[in-house]
Amino acid sequence: CPGSPCLRRQAAMAEAAGDAGLGPGPAQEGAELAAVIGATVPTGFEQTAAEEVQEKLGSASRISRDRGKIYFAVPARSLPQVHRLRSVDNLFVVVEEFKDYQFKENKEDALKDLEDLVKKLPWTDPLKVWELNNSLKKKKTKRKKHNLQSPASKEKPNDGGEEGGPDHKDTNDLEDYAQNIACVEPAGSQDTEKPQGVASQNGGEEEEEDNEQLDVRDEVQASSGSGTKAGDGQTAEGEAKVLKFRVTCNRAGDKHSFTSNEAARDFGGAVQEHFQWKADMTNFDVEVLLNIHNNEVVVGIALTEESLHRRNITHFGPTTLRSTLAYGMLRLCDPQPTDIIVDPMCGTGAIPIEGAAEWPCCYHIAGDNNPQAVKRAANNICSLLRKNESKDSSTALGVPLDIIQWDICNLPLRTGSVDIVVTDMPFGKRIGSKKKNWDLYPACLMEMGRICTPGTGRAVLLTQDKKCFAKALSRVGHIWRRAQTVWVNVGGLHAAVYLLRRTWERAEERRSFW
């Protein structure tokens, strides 16, 4: 695809990789602010996220013992690229990490140690990174408000989708989870900046990237040339604002004498005393993270107010897939330029929309047998087009994606015409039933085998009904071979993503469409 978004993205990645070869610790040669970034990712796809970080930022990642987290070091100027990673849900800058923290057996002593820890932590550089990240979000907000005045963005979305529907969050095997603070004081009126979905799309990508790079260089220079406003615990001259904060504690392990609530409360009290910030549970400026996994303790400052997986879907269905999980599934099958990628059970279109945004040199086809699902997916595609047009209407070229209503067991596609099949199969809980899956799964695998190219075709399938899938796969073993299994957590359910490879065997043809 000469001159295509694919090649432009690869060139941008290569440039970023050349700039980002920094390890953890202070900036090399004392010239540049660096940060260790922590990222939460869909459980099971930690290695996928690490590979994306290496590819796009040129930084090696360390996968945490606590599932669903990775850590990597980057220069502060790379923050815009960090926010454009497709595989991460939430980001935070690491203040300090303790790989073997020794907790006291007595509850009061253990909590007192956490309080005393606050004064010993190196807050200065992480708070500079937080300030830089905040200033970038404000610039993005201004640009977004300006772009929203274009005629294309004023069109109302089509009616017929459930907007702001259920959000299926990964629930790790945490003993308990708490979002608590030392105390809550009445909050004054304050406008907080909303997080921006900064995942790059096709239209206007280069121009926005260049603007962000210029902005971040200016901010880095300003940050290194002045003191840290947030870290000093005092406001600058003539500035009356006092920062508001909360502490969020995530704890896993059965050998702790305290709860997450107690850890967040006491640690938050020490943070408030150290910085003289105001505690506020909802209208906060700074979110301090205290992650405790057995004897591993990580203190960080959140860089995202809302999960980055909320980037594509505006019309939700009963089982909308997270965009980050969709990206992990797509990456698993290694799409190549000109590949034809099909999602035969697309639901709200999370997988094909993510695919069209990240792999525009492939052609994506989505379909579902439910007309309401097809309508929601079409509305989500329209939202993506409007987002691209609002960035730069002169370069918005549409997306390589079509959607159709069809029967999964009788697809209107030529035999051997498809390179990749990626889909989220019915779990038999919210849609369908486990009993119906015993007939549906074998029929689906047979039809997918028919449309896929023998020898090179592959399929990536997500399901929680593992017993039924294993039985169905054994019945079609002559056309599909299982190459890899990734165990994932989907809305608290233990599910699996299967990578299948098409054999050279000829699949049974049900009927001809041509």
UniProtKB/TrEMBL annotation:
It is found in: Cytoplasm. It comes from the Eukaryota. GO terms for biological process: tRNA methylation. Residues 186-303 form the THUMP domain. Residues 153-172 have a biased composition (Basic and acidic residues). SUPFAM superfamilies: S-adenosyl-L-methionine-dependent methyltransferases (SSF53335), THUMP domain-like (SSF143437). It holds the Pfam family THUMP. Residues 138-173, 185-237 are annotated as: Disordered. Residues 138-147 have a biased composition (Basic residues). One of its GO terms (cellular component) is cytoplasm. Residues 204-213 have a biased composition (Acidic residues). GO terms for molecular function: RNA binding; tRNA (guanine) methyltransferase activity. This is THUM3 protein. The lineage of its organism: Eukaryota, Metazoa, Chordata, Craniata, Vertebrata. The gene is Thumpd3.
